[in-house]
Amino acid sequence: RAVARLHGLSEAGVVYSQQNPAVIDQGVFHNDVIAVGNGEVLFYHQDAFLNTEPMLDELRDKLSRVGGQLRAICVPRAEVSVQDAVRSYLFNSQLLSRSDGSMLLIVPQECQANASVWAYLQRLIADDSPVAEVKVFDLKQSMQNGGGPACLRLRVALNDTELAAVNPGVIMTAPLYETLTQWVDRHYRDRMSESDLADPRLLDECRAALDELTQILKLGAVYPFQLN
């Protein structure tokens, strides 16, 4: 409630729901490991929430008041266990809208490797659901650090005027991607030991890398060490 208040959200457009403590104990450390939403669609595991039906009723009611219609997709525990959902990061996916009104689900390769998860996804796109397509990506490096597709993308909804006001230096392009790749190759160590953390040279390296990054992205001086 404090977060909603500090963000200036209207109570008419907010639903407070508690995550199921039982799934937290099974490794669901964030809600995005057990549910994901996009637009009017909520894609969630059967065991994701406490008091699921009252929550869905409230969502339907509040959406309907602004002309929306909730489309809830519940993944049954009989088809995908919580453990398989956590292992595969099924819900840490990207649920994206397409121009034809359908949705695309981007999942990590681990979903395809998990028999029960993959069988469910095949049935999902075959059924009459908002999700029309599933795309699989190899995200092993990110997954090994606890990040699935949802962790690799931040959705920011902007109109044309707002987009025009964004610093163009932070908009990903093919040349910027190449420049950032070269920056990583120059500055990232390929190994780290405990003793390195006490090495002043590591601090100098980090500052040099950040200083160059802010120049690449045309951010100006944003870190305290750049302002001194």
From TrEMBL:
Tell me the organism.
Pseudomonas syringae pv. pisi str. 1704B
Pfam families recorded: AstB (PF04996)
Q: Where is the signal peptide?
A: none
Q: At the top level of its lineage, which domain of life is listed?
A: Bacteria
An example molecular function term from Gene Ontology annotations: N-succinylarginine dihydrolase activity
Q: What is the lineage of its organism?
A: Bacteria, Pseudomonadati, Pseudomonadota, Gammaproteobacteria, Pseudomonadales
Classification via InterPro entries: AstB_sf (IPR037031), SuccinylArg_d-Hdrlase_AstB (IPR007079)
| Protein name (record) | Succinylarginine dihydrolase
**Presence of keyword Cell division:** no
What are its E.C. numbers? 3.5.3.23
Q: What are the GO BP annotations of this UniProt entry?
A: arginine metabolic process
Q: Which residues form a coiled coil?
A: none
Q: What are the protein's UniProt keywords? A: Arginine metabolism, Hydrolase
